[in-house]
C-alpha cells in the first residue's frame, strides 16, 4: 500500500453516531439472514438431505454425498467474490450487498419447494446442488461488503468493535437456523422428514425482504465515495489483486481459514458425528450448537473490544492459539456422550474459538490497498471457504481412517488452527512493514 493510499484512508470522514448505528444494523441484520440461509443447508445436510436426496444402503456414503453437495456452495463462493468484488470496488459496496441478499433469498426459498429423490429421482439432488451453488455465489459477495460497510464508516479507534458487530451475523444465523431446525424436528411422528423441514427454507423470503429494504436505505461508504470522486477505483479490481498483491492474498487466505474450515468441522461435521457415529439424537447436538452460538455472540463483542485495546492482529493470533489448544479436548468432551459435556464442548468450540473471528475483518482490511478492499477481503474469505467447504467430508474421511476414533478429525482441526496462526503472524509483519515504509517516506 502506498503512502498516498495510507494518508487518503486515514483522512476519510466517518459517519455520525446515529447514521453509524443504522449502517451497522444493516450490515449485521443482512449478514445474519445471509448466514441463516447458508447455515440452514449445512444443518439439514446430515439430518435431512442425506436420507431424502442422497439415499443409499451405506449411511456414511449417503452422508458424504450430502456433505459434498454442501461443499459445492464453497466452490461457488470464489465466483461470487469475483463478481461482487468487481461490483463493490468499481460501483460501490451498497449495490453489491443488495444483490447478494436478494439472490440468497430466492435460492433458499426454492430449496424449500424441491421434490425429493423418491419423487424426482436423480433430478432432485442435481437441483439441490445447483441451488446450493447459487447460495455460494451470493455468500461470496457478502462478508467483504458487509465488513467494509461497517469499517469504512467507523472511527479508526473502534474498528475492532464494528468488525465484531458484522461477525455477530454468523452466530445469529447459526442460532436462527439451529433453532428453526430444532423446532421443526420436535414435531411428532414423521412430520419433520415429510414436510416440516421445508418451512425454515420458505420463511427466508420474508426475512430477506427486510434485509433488502435496510441495505437499500443506507448511503455508500465515505471511503468508496472518496476513491470514486478522485477517479481512483480499479477497472478490473480482481485482476489487480492477483497481479499486484498475490502474496497478501495467500496470507489472507491462510489467516481466514479457520473461520470457515474449523467452524464447519465443529458444527456441520459434528452434527453427523454425534448422530451417526455416537448414535445420539440430533436434538442433543442442536441444543449444544444453539448454546454455543449464544456464547459466540458474547465472545465476539468482548474480542472486538479487546482488539481496539491491543490490536486486531494480536487478538486474532491469541484466538488461534486457543483454537489449537482446544482441538483435542473438544472431541474428548463429545466422546463422553454426556449431554452436559457435549454442550460444554460446543461452548468451547463455537464460543472461545471465535476470539480470532471477531477482528479478522479489521486485520485483513489493513492488509489490502483501499482500492482493492472488497476484492481482497472477498477473495481471502472465499478462497479459504473453497477449502473449508469440503472439511465436513474430509473430516468424515479422517474419521474413517482413524477407525471412527475422534483423534482423526481432531488432528485435522488442530492443523487448520496452526495454518491460520501462521497466516496471522505473516499478516501482522506485512502490515508493520507497510507502516514503517510510510513513516520512512
How would you portray this structure in words?
The protein has 441 residues and is mostly helical. It has one domain: MFS general substrate transporter like domains (Growth Hormone, Chain: A), CATH 1.20.1250. Helix content is 81%, strand content 0%. It contains 22 helices and no strands. The chain has helices spanning 3-11, 17-53, 59-90, 93-111, 117-120, 123-140, 142-151, 159-167, 169-185, 191-194, 199-202, 204-216, 222-229, 237-244, 246-277, 282-310, 312-335, 339-351, 360-367, 373-388, 391-401, 407-440. Helix 2 packs parallel to helix 4 and helix 9 packs antiparallel against helix 16 (282-310). The longest helix has 37 residues, at 17-53. It is globular. The model is unreliable at 1-12 (pLDDT under 50).
End-to-end distance, in Å? 12 Å
Find the CATH topology: Growth Hormone, Chain: A
Radius of gyration: 21 Å
CATH top-level class: Mainly Alpha
**What average pLDDT do the residues reach?**
87
| Element order: H for helix, E for strand | HHHHHHHHHHHHHHHHHHHHHH
Low-confidence stretches: 1-12
Amino acid at each position: 500500500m502506498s503512502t498516498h493510499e495510507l494518508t487518503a484512508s486515514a483522512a476519510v470522514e466517518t459517519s455520525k453516531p446515529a447514521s453509524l448505528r443504522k449502517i451497522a444494523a444493516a450490515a449485521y441484520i443482512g449478514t445474519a439472514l445471509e448466514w441463516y440461509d447458508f447455515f440452514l443447508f449445512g444443518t439439514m445436510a446430515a439430518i435431512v438431505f442425506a436420507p431424502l436426496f442422497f439415499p443409499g444402503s451405506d449411511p456414511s456414503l449417503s452422508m458424504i454425498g450430502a456433505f459434498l453437495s454442501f461443499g459445492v456452495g464453497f466452490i461457488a463462493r470464489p465466483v461470487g467474490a469475483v463478481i461482487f468484488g468487481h461490483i463493490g470496488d468499481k460501483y460501490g459496496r451498497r449495490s453489491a450487498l443488495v444483490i447478494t441478499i436478494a439472490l440468497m433469498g430466492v435460492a433458499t426459498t426454492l430449496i424449500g419447494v424441491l421434490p425429493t429423490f423418491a419423487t424426482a429421482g436423480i433430478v432432485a439432488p442435481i437441483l439441490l446442488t445447483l441451488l446450493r451453488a447459487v447460495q455460494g455465489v451470493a455468500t461470496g459477495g457478502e462478508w467483504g461488503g458487509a465488513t467494509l460497510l461497517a469499517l469504512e464508516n467507523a472511527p479508526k479507534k473502534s474498528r475492532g468493535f464494528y468488525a465484531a458487530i458484522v461477525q455477530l451475523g454468523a452466530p445469529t444465523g447459526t442460532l436462527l437456523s439451529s433453532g428453526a431446525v430444532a423446532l421443526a424436528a420436535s414435531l411428532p411422528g414423521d412430520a419433520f422428514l415429510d414436510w416440516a423441514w421445508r418451512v425454515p427454507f420458505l420463511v427466508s423470503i420474508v426475512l430477506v425482504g427486510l434485509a433488502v429494504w435496510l441495505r437499500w436505505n443506507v448511503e455508500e461508504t465515505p471511503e468508496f465515495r472518496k476513491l470514486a470522486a478522485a477517479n481512483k477505483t480499479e477497472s478490473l479490481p480482481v485482476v489487480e489483486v492477483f497481479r499486484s498483491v498475490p502474496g497478501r492474498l495467500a496470507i489472507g487466505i491462510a489467516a481466514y481459514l479457520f473461520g470457515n474450515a474449523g467452524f464447519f468441522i465443529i458444527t456441520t461435521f459434528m452434527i453427523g458425528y454425534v448422530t451417526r457415529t455416537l448414535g445420539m439424537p440430533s436434538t442433543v447436538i442442536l441444543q449444544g450448537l444453539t448454546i454455543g452460538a449464544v456464547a459466540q455472540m458474547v465472545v465476539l463483542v468482548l474480542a472486538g473490544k479487546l482488539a481496539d485495546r491491543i490490536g486486531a492482529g494480536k487478538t486474532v493470533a491469541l484466538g488461534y492459539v486457543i483454537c489449537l489448544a482446544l482441538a483435542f479436548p473438544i472431541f474428548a468432551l463429545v466422546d463422553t456422550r454426556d449431554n452436559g459435556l457435549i454442550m460444554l464442548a460446543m461452548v468451547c468450540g463455537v464460543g472461545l474459538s471465535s476470539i480470532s473471528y471477531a477482528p479478522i475483518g479489521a486485520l485483513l482490511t489493513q492488509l489490502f490497498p483501499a482500492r482493492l478492499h472488497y476484492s481482497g477481503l472477498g477473495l481471502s474469505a472465499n478462497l479459504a471457504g473453497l477449502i473449508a467447504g469440503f472439511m465436513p467430508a474430509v473430516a468424515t474421511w479422517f474419521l474413517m481412517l482413524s477407525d471412527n476414533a475422534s483423534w482423526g478429525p481432531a488432528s485435522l482441526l488442530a492443523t487448520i488452527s496452526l495454518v491460520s496462526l501462521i497466516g496471522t503472524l505473516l499478516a501482522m509483519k506485512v502490515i508493520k512493514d507497510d507502516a514503517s515504509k510510510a513513516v520512512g517516506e
